[in-house]
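Annex B. Sample input.
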Amino acid sequence: MSTGQRNLLERIRGRLGGTQAPELPKVLRNVPRAQGTETFCAAIESVSGQVHRVTRGKDGLLVLRGLIAERGWGSVACSDSEFLQGWCEQLGPTGRPDTADNPIPREELLNMDAGLCTAQIGIADTGSLALCSEAERHRLVSLVPPASVIVLFERDLVPDFATALQRLEEGGLPTTLSLITGPSRTADIELTLTVGVHGPESLDVILIGESGAVRD
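Annex B, continued. Sample output.
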């Protein structure tokens, strides 16, 4: 460590003298699945997201159709997730698949109403969603359109970030990992919160229960 770095840390320690560290979130390991699901849903809602709980995959498609009708979406960019391919086909002209062989041009993606993808892990205590690059083409679909819809299976919920990392390490760390916690938000120097500046202004999570088969 250089002298300059050491002096900087000393100044920070001095400024923090007498301050009280914030309370750390409770660790949720080994909690019942139902409790973890309720915690996840509450965490999503606390950051201005919405959770739509369904039992079967086809019920999730009905939720998506309802969102399209309610919010007047004319175009939905769909990731190349194997699970979502069937959904995209059933959306007709509203659904536009973004695949490696036929990617949606960025200028068109900027004009689409919503993006649809899946999450590989849901983190209960923060309501965060982990998206792995090896699973599907999700980055632009999940970040560029003004509305984001993410599908998550309840079996992929974990209690906390430490458990999420353990699961990722077991399967091999992805090249790119995106963590999404609610809609995009930022605050200026006066701490005025603004939603949707650097990404989607809304987030809907379709949470499919344990009985949801991969292709039902």
